[in-house]
Design a protein that fits this description.
Layout: H1 4-14, E1 26-31, E2 36-47, E3 56-62, E4 68-74, H2 76-79, E5 85-87, E6 90-96
Antiparallel strand pairs: 1-2, 1-6, 2-3, 3-4, 5-6
């Protein structure tokens, strides 16, 4: 059985991941034991004012069937994929996916098909 850290390294080579996390991002969530991967949509990030240190309420819509709302209280390195953390005794990893194009890459346009006009004027 592989440890979560090696799975995270492999995912970094497979997926394009962002260095930051913002509202509207789709995040990859990996849970250890049993190894589970799912996606979540970040719906809000709000400061937890009840703590002296910087902790944040990360509101997610877990993209499972059926979708489920969740709010996790995490530090910035935890919800930006800088560290693996534990929650309820289980190791977890969260990092935003990068859906933008590669730097310097020009996207190839879809070939256009010449269309004939649908209607003609008949005299």
């Amino acid at each position: 059985m592989r440890d979560l850290e090696s799975v995270v390294r492999e995912l970094g080579q497979t997926f394009r991941l962002k260095g930051t996390t913002a509202v509207g991002d789709v995040v990859l969530i990996v849970v250890d034991n049993p190894l589970t991967m799912l996606y979540g949509l970040v719906t809000a990030i709000e400061r937890d004012v009840s703590r002296l240190d910087e902790w944040w309420h990360l509101a997610l819509q877990l993209l499972s069937f059926p979708p489920q709302p969740a709010v996790w209280t995490l530090r910035t390195p935890q919800f930006t994929g800088q560290e693996v953390f534990t929650m309820g005794g289980e190791k977890r990893f969260v990092k935003a996916l990068d859906f933008s194009g590669q730097e310097g890459e020009t996207r190839k346009a879809m070939p256009t098909v010449a269309k004939k006009p649908g209607l003609r004027r008949v005299k």
